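R.M. (postdoc): so does anyone remember the format we settled on? I'll just put the C-alpha cells first.
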C-alpha cells in the first residue's frame, strides 16, 4: 500500500501463488502438478490430466472411470440452446460462437451457479468439460452448413468430439485411432500453462465472484487474440501467404527482422520460454508421424521447417532468444485431420479448459483471494474547471 510500481504486461509481478503448473522458461521445462509434460503426453489421456490439474493428484482407476462416466452423462445441450446457433451468420468465427454460447450456457443453470457452493462448482466443472466440446463441434458444423449430431455417449471424450465434428447423419462414423491418439496428445499439451493471459483473465473475472461459465467465457475471449491462442490460426495463414506470394522464406524472415508493417513470425517467441518450448518439441515430433499415418503430404510442413531452420540460425532470433512455441506446428496437424483453420483456436480452448477450471477453483478456494484490481499511474490533466464556471 502507498507504493505503486509500474509493470506493463505483468513482466515482474506475481498475482497469485499457485500449485498447479511449474515452468522453467530458461531450461524449457513444463510440469503439471509435478509430472513432466513429456510423460503425460505419452502415457495419459485428456480426462486423467484434467482430474490431475483440477484435484491435484492422479485419479485412481475407479475415480477416473466415474469422472469419465459423469462427463459422458452431461454432454447434451438444452434443445433451446441449439436455436442460439441459428441466429448467427454461418461466417461467424467459431471462437466468438464458443465464447458467446458458453456465456449463454449459464442462463440454464442460474440457480445452480453459486461459486461459494461446492456442489454447484463440482457440477459445473463436469458440465463445462462435457458441453464445451459439443458447442465447439456445433460451431464447426454451423460454419460448413452441416446438421448437428447428438453426442454419442458410448464413445470416449476424444472420439465423441471427432464424431461430432466429422460425422454426418447419413453415414456411420468410422473411428480413426491415429487421429484420436494424435488429438488426445495435442489436447494434453494444451491443458495448462500457469498464469498466461487467458488463465489470468479467468482468475480475474472469477475474483469478482462471477460464476464458472462467465469466467471461462471471458478466458475464451482472451485466448482468441493472435498473440495468444489465435497464433495457431495465424501461423497457418502466414505459411499459406508465403506459399501463395512466391516470396522466399529468407525474404520473409528479413521483413520480420526489419519489422516491416509490424510483421511477426507467428508461432515464435514466448514471454516465459527463452528456450525451445517443450510442447513445440513434442508437437514437431508428432507432426511428421501423424501426417505420415494419415497419408497426408503437406508442403506447408516443409515450409514451416524451413522457416524454423532459418530463424534458429539467425542472429535476430538468437539474440532475442526466440524459439518455436506450441502454436508453430499444431496447425499443420489440425489441418491434416480436416479441421478448418478457423477451428484451430477452438481446439486450443478445449485443451485449455481443464487448466482454466483448475485455476478458477484454486482462486475460489484460496482464503487470500481478493478482487483483482490493478493500480495505475495517472498521466491525465490536472484539475480544471468546466467551461463557464470560472
Ligand atoms: N517475431 C519477431 N520478433 C519477435 C517475435 C516474433 N514472433 N516475438 C518477439 N519478438 C521480438 C520483439 O519484437 C522484441 O524485439 P525488440 O526488443 O527489438 O523490440 C523482442 O523479440 C522481445 O519480444 P517482446 O514482444 O517484448 O516479448 P513478449 O514477452 O512481450 O511477447 C509474445 C511474447 C508471445 C507475445 C511474442 O513473442 C509474440 O508476439 N509472438 C508471436 C505470437 C505467438 O506466437 N503467440 C503464441 C504464444 S505461445 C502460446 C500461447 O500463449 O497462446
Amino acid at each position: 500500500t502507498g507504493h505503486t510500481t509500474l509493470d506493463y504486461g505483468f513482466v515482474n509481478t506475481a498475482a497469485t501463488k499457485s500449485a498447479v503448473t511449474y515452468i522453467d522458461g530458461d531450461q524449457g521445462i513444463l510440469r503439471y502438478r509435478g509430472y513432466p509434460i513429456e510423460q503425460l503426453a505419452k502415457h495419459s489421456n485428456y480426462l486423467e490430466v484434467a482430474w490431475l490439474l483440477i484435484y491435484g493428484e492422479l485419479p485412481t482407476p475407479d475415480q477416473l472411470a466415474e469422472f469419465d462416466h459423469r462427463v459422458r452423462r452431461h454432454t447434451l445441450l438444452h434443445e433451446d440452446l441449439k436455436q442460439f446457433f441459428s441466429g448467427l451468420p454461418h461466417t461467424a468465427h467459431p471462437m466468438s460462437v464458443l465464447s458467446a454460447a458458453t456465456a449463454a450456457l449459464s442462463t440454464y443453470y442460474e440457480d445452480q451457479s453459486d461459486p461459494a457452493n461446492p456442489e454447484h462448482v463440482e457440477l459445473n466443472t463436469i458440465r463445462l468439460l462435457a458441453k464445451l466440446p459439443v458447442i465447439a463441434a456445433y460451431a464447426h458444423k454451423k460454419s460448413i452448413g452441416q446438421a448437428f449430431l447428438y453426442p454419442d455417449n458410448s464413445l470416449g471424450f476424444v472420439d465423441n468430439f471427432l464424431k461430432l465434428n466429422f460425422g454426418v447423419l447419413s453415414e456411420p462414423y468410422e473411428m480413426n485411432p491415429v487421429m484420436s491418439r494424435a488429438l488426445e496428445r495435442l489436447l494434453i499439451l494444451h491443458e495448462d500453462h500457469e498464469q498466461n493471459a487467458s488463465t489470468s483473465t479467468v482468475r480475474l473475472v472469477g475474483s469478482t465472484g462471477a460464476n464458472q461459465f462467465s469466467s471461462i467465457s471471458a478466458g475464451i475471449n482472451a485466448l482468441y487474440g493472435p498473440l495468444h491462442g489465435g497464433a495457431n490460426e495465424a501461423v497457418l495463414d502466414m505459411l499459406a501467404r508465403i506459399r501463395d506470394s512466391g516470396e522466399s522464406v529468407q525474404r520473409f524472415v528479413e521483413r520480420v527482422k526489419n519489422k516491416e508493417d509490424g510483421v511477426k513470425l507467428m508461432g515464435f517467441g514466448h514471454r516465459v520460454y527463452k528456450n525451445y518450448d517443450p510442447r513445440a518439441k513434442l508437437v514437431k515430433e508428432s507432426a511428421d508421424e501423424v501426417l505420415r499415418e494419415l497419408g497426408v503430404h503437406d508442403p506447408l510442413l516443409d515450409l514451416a521447417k524451413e522457416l524454423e531452420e532459418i530463424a534458429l540460425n539467425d542472429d535476430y532470433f538468437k539474440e532475442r532468444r526466440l524459439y518455436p512455441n506450441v502454436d508453430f506446428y499444431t496447425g499443420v496437424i489440425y489441418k491434416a485431420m480436416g479441421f478448418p483453420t478457423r477451428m484451430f483456436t477452438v481446439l486450443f480452448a478445449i485443451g485449455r479448459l481443464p487448466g482454466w477450471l483448475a485455476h478458477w477453483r484454486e482462486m475460489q478456494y484460496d482464503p487470500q483471494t481478493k478482487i483483482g484490481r490493478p493500480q495505475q499511474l495517472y498521466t491525465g490533466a490536472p484539475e480544471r474547471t468546466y467551461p463557464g464556471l470560472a
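R.M.: ...and that's the designed sequence above, right after the C-alpha cells. Also worth knowing: The mean pLDDT is 96. The radius of gyration is 22 Å.
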